[in-house]
Automatic annotation (TrEMBL):
The keyword Metal-binding is assigned to this record: yes
PANTHER family documented for this protein: 2-HYDROXYGLUTARYL-COA DEHYDRATASE, D-COMPONENT-RELATED, SUBUNIT OF OXYGEN-SENSITIVE 2-HYDROXYISOCAPROYL-COA DEHYDRATASE
Keywords: Iron, Iron-sulfur, Metal-binding
Identification of the protein by name: 2-hydroxyacyl-CoA dehydratase family protein
Keyword Hydrolase among UniProt keywords: no
Top-level taxon of the source organism: Bacteria
Length: 414
């Protein structure tokens, strides 16, 4: 049997997000503090303080999905700022600097009370610094440390043995930064930090990660892919931006139960599944229908994206000290996605477990490790097609040309 066209979990998550954003926007306009936080920064601090936050890259995905990235990025260029560096992170800033328009996505993002980001390079520090210098929004930076030792199979260690996997020096640094950050957040927002509340947030987010791990493993084992990846992404990632809430944990459980039911009923996205594909890279927000383009014509289905896999392996941290566990959650976060051999060993493991026939590898201009990822996969016998474009910048890619390129590659797979 072929499966449903839309997961109930995806529809519920999208509806929840729209309702939440409308309420948050109204409260911000009445003066409630709002934080804009990068995806690889510890948002759980704000959850524990009951301070609403918007994830910078989530808002960039909304701008891109509405096909408005070009307009905002060109406005950035018009101010003498680069529009071709870290576009995924720059889009919310570009919108804030552009003239307000009636057709802004979802009514537009309210002016945040502060921005928080981990500085993984000079461009990121400069970009977020513009929020403060150009718009008067305080910028709170966190450092990005690296480790000398790389754990073997980090995904087996991170839940409980994160001290040895990450190394105490890196965790010490971020923990100290978070302890220094708390009074500054209290000053800027008027909210109070409660360590007991953070412990509750961490417990709920760990439970959410366990449901995501069950879903990922279930999809890897399923004889045929039962769900479209462009439904899995919102069903997973919208609850991820609400980590530490009961709604998010319930949403992760509901996704697992829905997928489990589909697998039990032998549903499949493609009845005649002939090619199983893996998408490495950020979501192609301006053309999410791309992922389903090759089902009827080639019997090809995307069975993997990093979003569910990261939600399964990269977040759970158990420990008695919730602030230190939170530091351990984020101080090596980018390593898991982008730093070899952390990232490449994980991608190979995921490719094998999901039995993929090939990988489509989206390489953004800011990528620093793409060669190692492609090399490791090909060395493991997995064919790779590299696509060079920015995932959120609709100007960087011709969708028709991309479809033809991928279709030709699928036909040529051994």
């Amino acid at each position: 049997m072929t499966g449903p066209q839309r997961l109930a979990a995806a529809g519920a998550a999208l509806s929840h997000q729209r309702e939440w954003f409308a309420g948050m926007r109204a409260e911000a306009e009445r003066g409630r503090p709002l934080a804009l936080v990068n995806a690889d920064a510890p948002q759980e601090i704000f959850r524990a303080m009951d301070v609403p936050y918007v994830v910078n890259q989530w808002w960039a995905s909304i701008i891109s999905a509405k096909r408005m990235s070009g307009r905002y990025l060109e406005a950035l260029r018009g101010r003498g700022l680069p529009d071709d560096i870290e576009q995924y992170s720059a889009l919310p800033l570009a919108e804030a600097l552009a003239p307000r328009a009636d057709d802004a996505p979802w009514g537009g993002l309210p002016r945040p009370s502060l921005v928080l980001a981990e500085c993984t390079g000079d461009s990121m520090r400069r970009m977020f610094g513009l929020w403060e210098s150009e718009l008067g929004v305080p910028f709170l930076p966190l450092e990005s440390a690296v480790g000398e030792n790389v754990p073997t199979e980090w995904w087996t260690l991170m839940r409980h043995d994160w001290e040895s996997a990450v190394g105490p020096a890196r965790i010490d640094l971020l923990e100290q930064e978070l302890r220094a950050l708390v009074p500054r957040l209290e000053e800027l927002t008027g909210a109070a930090y409660d360590p007991d509340r953070l412990a509750e947030v961490m417990a709920l987010s760990n439970e959410q990660a366990e449901w995501n791990r069950r879903t990922r493993d279930l999809l890897a084992r399923a004889p045929r892919c039962p769900v479209p990846v462009n439904d899995v992404i919102p069903a997973v990632m919208i609850p991820q931006w609400h980590r530490g809430t009961r709604w998010a944990t319930s949403a992760a459980e509901n996704l697992y139960r829905e997928v489990s039911d589909l697998v039990e009923k032998d549903h499949a996205v493609v009845g005649d599944e002939r090619r199983r594909l893996m998408w490495i890279g950020r979501g192609l927000w301006f053309d999410m229908n791309f992922y389903r383009s090759f089902e009827e014509s080639h019997g090809a289905v995307f069975v993997w994206s990093m979003y569910l896999a990261l939600a399964a392996d990269a977040y759970a941290r158990y420990g008695e000290d919730p602030l230190r566990a939170l530091a351990a959650r984020f101080c090596a976060f980018r390593d898991q996605m982008y730093t070899p051999p952390w990232s490449v060993e994980w991608y190979v493991k995921e490719a094998k477990e999901h039995r993929v026939d090939g990988v489509v590898h989206l390489i953004s201009p800011d990528s620093r490790s793409s060669w190692f990822t492609t090399h490791a996969l090909e060395a493991a016998g997995v064919p790779v097609l590299e696509i060079r474009a920015d995932n959120a910048d609709g100007r960087s890619l011709d969708p028709s040309a991309l479809h033809r390129q991928v279709a030709d590659w699928i036909r040529a797979l051994p």
